[in-house]
Design brief:
The protein is α/β, with parallel strands linked by helices. It folds into 2 domains: about 150 residues, Nitrogenase molybdenum iron protein domain (Rossmann fold); about 130 residues, Rossmann fold, CATH 3.40.50. Helices cover about 45% and strands about 10% of the residues. The strands form 3 sheets. It has a 4-stranded parallel sheet, sandwiched between helices. A two-stranded parallel ribbon has the order 5-6. The protein is globular. The protein binds zinc ion (ZN). Zinc ion binds next to loops.
């Protein structure tokens, strides 16, 4: 704690050349924030590659860094359950925190059991990420001292245009699917925004909720197996950051030929594995989904 006190007194008198620190919870928002901020500030991302945003935690060192940051950027809407207490305590210390999810016109989780609960997985809809880019740009402009504030706006405009181009490409890809090929079953309710944006229908999830922390009952799996059979879905979409044991149980239970397709649904991978950036993650998922659904 003595060390933290020393850090506080350093931060109170920032040298002109010292970069501001922005703390970001998820690696998806970390990539987006880095594209907006560039080298003008240190963007520290808490969540490692391939981690589960519902369950990752922070170290004591990271918690201390959060309390010294000029800005915290987090997903919110209930996503980062393991980090929320640290965000609250940093806010009590006067650190501004942007809850990006509330700035992107969130949808409710499309599941009877979670009715009315806001769905945190907004990044699966690139149009909402364009809104997130604006929200992050505004928060950085308001709270973070930058050497060249004009660069912030041009970076955000360039990156926002890339996300908008991704959205158009995805729309073309999904539009090519036949109407009876638009039903999807996923690991948990992670693709509601993508389904809403591109005209797919989520007919079930292995974990019947908006979080990976809830386990399905045997009856849930039996019901879902029936849904898989009746709907004739060709594939179940698993998550690369989650064990796919339950998905395999479901596929066996359904007793039909069904592909298990791993997607990068809520975490970036390390570079070179298909989801080194948000844009790459979305392109990989779109290609895998459209290939599986049209097979
Ligand atoms: Zn999730």
């Amino acid at each position: 704690m003595a060390a933290a006190g020393v850090l506080t007194s350093c931060a109170a008198v920032p040298a002109g050349s010292e970069k501001a620190t922005i703390m970001v919870t998820t690696n998806i928002l970390g990539d987006i924030t880095r594209n907006i901020v560039g080298d003008a500030a240190d963007v520290v991302v808490l969540m490692e590659a391939n981690a589960d945003p519902h369950s990752f935690g922070v170290s004591a060192h990271q918690a201390g860094q959060m309390e010294q940051a000029q800005l915290i950027v987090f997903n919110g809407l209930g996503l980062e359950e393991g980090v929320l207490a640290h965000i609250d305590s940093a806010k009590e210390q006067g650190v501004p925190a942007l809850e990006v999810g509330v700035a992107v016109n969130p949808l409710a989780i499309q599941d009877a059991g979670s009715a009315g609960t806001p769905d945190p997985h907004f990044w699966t809809d690139p149009q909402r990420v364009v809104m997130a880019v604006d929200a992050i740009e505004d928060a950085v402009a308001q709270h973070v001292s930058l050497p060249d504030p004009g660069l912030l706006h041009s970076n955000a405009a360039i990156y926002g245009a890339q996300v908008a181009a991704l959205d158009q490409w995805m729309a073309t890809e999904f539009a090519a699917l036949a109407p009876d090929r638009r039903k999807i079953i996923t690991n948990h309710h992670v693709f509601g925004y993508l389904a809403h944006r591109f005209g797919l229908e989520v007919i079930g999830a292995v974990m019947p909720s908006g979080t990976t922390l809830a386990a399905p009952s045997a009856a849930d799996l039996f019901d879902l197996a029936t849904t898989v059979r009746d709907a004739g879905v060709p594939a179940i979409f698993a998550d690369t950051s989650q064990p796919d044991k339950l998905v395999r149980v479901l596929a066996e239970e359904a007793n039909v030929k069904v592909l298990i397709v791993p997607l990068f649904s809520e975490s970036l991978s390390v570079p070179g594995e298909g989801a080194g950036s948000y844009l790459e993650m979305m392109r990989t998922n779109t290609s895998r989904m459209t290939a599986a659904l049209s097979s």
